[in-house]
Each structure stands twice: as C-alpha cells, then as structure tokens.
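Treating backbone geometry as a discrete language has practical consequences that deserve illustration. The sequence in question and its structure tokens are set out directly beneath this paragraph.
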Amino acid sequence: MLLTAFPISLTRNIRQRRHKKVAINIPIYQDKFTKDPYEDVHMKPLGAIPNHIHMDASGFGMGCCCLQMTFQARCIEEARHIYDQLAAFTPIILALSSASPVYKSYLSNIDCRWNVIAASMDDRTDEELGLSPLKNDEYKIPKSRYGSITSYLTEKGRKFNDVKIVKNEEYYQNLLDNGVDDLLAQHIAHLFIRDPISCYREKLNIDNENDTDHFENIQSTNWQSLRFKLPPPNSPIGWRVEFRTPDLQFTDFENAAFITFVSLMTRVIIYNTKLNFIIPISKLDQNIQRAHTPNAVVDEKFYFNKNYDKVGAPENIVEMTINEIMNGCENFRGMINLMYVHINKGCINDKLRHILAGYMQLIQKRSNGELVTNATWIRNFITSHPEYQQDSKITHSINYDLLSTIRKISNLEIFDCKLLPCIYICDQQLVKSKNYNRDKQEEIIAKNKKCVEIAIKYKRLIYSSTEKIDKCNWEIFHDEHCECRSVVDC
C-alpha cells in the first residue's frame, strides 16, 4: 500500500497532539476456547487492556470502508430541517449496514467500524479527555473529533439538545454579533474547539473574504455522523447534508439500497414537514453505541419517537427494535410503509418501481432478521469454517476463503439467499438465463406492481406465497386480497 504525504502527515499530527500513539481497544469475541483473559502482551505498554484487540495506528480506522451520501437542499432552512430529522436514522442504518466484525486477525465483539475509526482519529490530550486537570488546554471534550453529532440546528430540535455543548466562546460570540442565530452559531463554534491536524503549504495565505479553505480545514476534519455543508463561494453548489454512518456493503445492490432508502427518507422529510423523528442527543448517543452490538438488528432496541406522525401529540421516545421501526407494529406505521406510500405518489414507471421494491425488500428483510447483515454473514462464515478452532482467531486460510467468497458474491458469481433478497437474485438469474425474455420480465414487473399497490391500500406489506424455481424463490408482496402469483422461466 502506498501512502501519500497527506495521510502520513495526518497520523503524525494526531500522535504529536496526543503526545502518544492512538489507542484503539475493541472487545474481543469470547468463544469457547478464546483465552480469558486475552492479552496482547506486546501492546500492553501502549495501552492495551485485557480481553480487547489493541490497535495503535490511525490506519486501522481510516483503512475501513464506508458508504457516505450527500443531499442538496433548496435553502439553509431546509438543510437544517433535513439534518435534524435524519439524525435518528444514523444509528439505525449503521446497525443495518454493519459489516466490520474482524480486526487484526481476530473476531471482535462489535459489528461495525464506527468506534474503531473514532478512536483512530482521537487527538484529544489527557487534559481534554478528563484524565488530568486542565492546565495547558482549554476544554474537557466528551467525544473524539470523529463521532456522532452534538446538537440540533432547528427550533424544533432545540429542546432535545440535552447534553453540554462545548464550544469556542470567542467564535460563538463573534457569530452572534454578526447575525448568526444561536443554534447555528453553537454548531460552528463547537467545530472550532479542535485544532487543525492537516494543512497544505499553498493554502496558508488565502483571501478569507472569498475563500473558505481555512473553514473547510476544520469542518472537514470534524467527522460527525452527519455533516452540515455550507455552499462554497462563487459556486452553484448549495446547502447540503452528508449522511456518514453506513458501512460499505458486499454488492452494489446493497449499497444502492441504502442510498435509495436514505434518499427517499429525505424526500419524505421535505414533503411532510409535520413528521418529527428527533430524539434527545443523549438517546442518540446511546443508539450509536447499541448499533455496535453483534446482531444489533435483531437483539438490540433503539430509542425512537413513536409519535413521529401524530401532529400535536407529545413526543413518545420509547425503545423499539429495528424490525418495529422499519416494518411497523401495533399503532405504529413503519418506515418501509412510509417509503411505499411516498413511492406510490410518484410518477414512476413499472421498471423503476420494481427496482425500488427490491431495495425496500432488502431493508425490510434485514430489519426482521430474515436476511442477515454483512457482519453476521462474516461471523457465520468464520465460525463454520473447518479450520476455525473456536478461539476467535482468523487464520490465513480462513481469511483467504472469506475474501474469495465475498469477491464472488460482489461479482455476482454466487448468490446467498440469507444475504440478498430473492427478488434481486431471481432478477440476476433471469438476466443470465439462456431463455431470458425481456417481455416476460416486464409482465412480472406489472404483476408485482399490482401486489404492491394492494399492500399499500391496506396499509401493510405482507409477503408470503413463494414458488421454487431452479433453486431460488421468487417472492412477491402479497396479502389475502391479492391472488396473483409470479412464475419465472429461468
């Protein structure tokens, strides 16, 4: 691997600011023959702790892969609204997209990368961490510069800012004096409690009246779960919101599904401003940590506003499973249903509707546990490998077989019905089939459209009747009011 001067400078500056190397400690997965306590004796002087996998370089975090998406708003107020409303979904999507259970050749007891990269970019000194009294530094800082958001930006979100917001008081006052409201001012002033950790020689002396590079230097090295992005000067680019939590997936289809879901959610948020998904920042922080739990989609509960769509009703922040949040439960309309209602209002053709149904089926079935996350799939592959010794250790052979199989899945050479929805698998097999007939595919799409419309009408999505076709199932959304079946001549 070749490293350019930028990441080398970045990692060096983080070490120098901390006055020591980074210390990333991730709990190890305790299997039957895992050493207890497991200790990395060579790393103990550098901060390794028992029963944790220790990593001592920023590359362990910044080497992780993620999926990030940016949405442009029509104006600053719309961008602030999207930012606040999307926040509740950052831990939900983090859990659904989890794909990072292995570190340093050991199986860990977390499923996603977030805490790893947060620790790898943590440049706080002992004083800022609260480990020693403030003497040379100005603040105690509760989070790494890579972490979840600290405050909301709209009036609707003000009362949910229930954690102390550490901010640069001088910059905060300067912003207020120049007409910036207090919510946005404290958001910007919070960014400036950090020191620059990288800079370009040619950008040191610039015209700050016409160039925002000095601001972006700080903004772009505060890696929060959402990023509120200002318009660049002299550019047609507007106010934007970046959604930053998802792990990268095995296939383009899965990545497209998450991008589509979040994109549709932004549309729903924009076109129905009465919806309110905001939860207290303290609960949001808890949700981010819960998303790391192995198989969090099935085993964890997350704080969510159960009254998100009840205008005038008080917020009802309760713990719910991801299945309940996404697929709904008694007296609660799930997000998948909300997506379909929005899709049904749009003027889209049958082919696009069919594609969207595949994406929604992935999210729906991951949420209820019928499909597994990439992280769970990796765990199952490792623990069922004949060379695995139930000691949490991943050998070279296990690693090779794992990566080879993932490559085949990514290249659509093999399909796993526990990982990908049958609607997608059948589409791919149909296209590969020698008997592929585009007219027949259009006929199937038209039938699926009828099923989805009926399911929407009755405010729920029920999938049942399946037919076995060349070792794969074609599943359609179906309820007792719909008798149509789909048959594919693979």
User: Anything to note?
Assistant: DSSP finds 20 helices and 13 strands in the chain.
